[in-house]
Amino acid sequence: MLDKISAYDQRQYKLMLAKLLLYKKDKISLKNLIFSLESLLKVLNIMDENWKNEFVRNWGVLEVVYACFVYPKYEELNEKDKKYVNEGKDKIEIKDAVNKLIKLVEPKIVEEDET
Fold first, then answer.
1. 19-40 per-residue burial string, b: 16 or more CB within 10 A, e: under 16
2. Where are the domains of the chain?
3. Phi, psi of 82, rounded to the nearest 5 degrees
4. What is the pLDDT of residue 110?
């Protein structure tokens, strides 16, 4: 059974989902997605720790991959990290993390007639 989720938190979950879907459609940048998700997570009032930990774990994947993109000294990365970035594994990890985040957020959204 779903916990009773406040209207305020419902708006935050809906915004999270909207941002994730916009990213999947290439309408916002990875940087924008990371910042938005972090900000929305911080303002949630009701949240179970297991959900939060899983959310942070997947959000963290996005942050780490983004850090690799903007790392100012690419030449100083070790060979393993350079290969990781060059082979596009980062794109697969981003896609997987975004899909997992969507699966985490969707069940938190309750339609008006369900409350």
1. bbeebeeeebebeebbebbeeb
2. 7-105
3. -60, -45
4. 86
* CA diameter of the chain: 55
Burial class (CB in 10 A: 0-12, 13-18, 19+), 104: buried
How far apart CA 108 and CA 42 sit, in angstroms, is 16
Q: What is the spatial distance between Cα 86 and Cα 72, in angstroms, rounded to a whole number? A: 16
pLDDT digits (tens, 9 = 90+) for 6-29: 889 999 999 999 999 999 999 999
Compute the residue count for the chain.
Answer: 115
The dihedral formed by the CA atoms of 48, 49, 51 and 55, expressed in degrees to the nearest 10: 130
Each residue's pLDDT tens digit, 60-82: 988 888 887 776 555 566 666 66
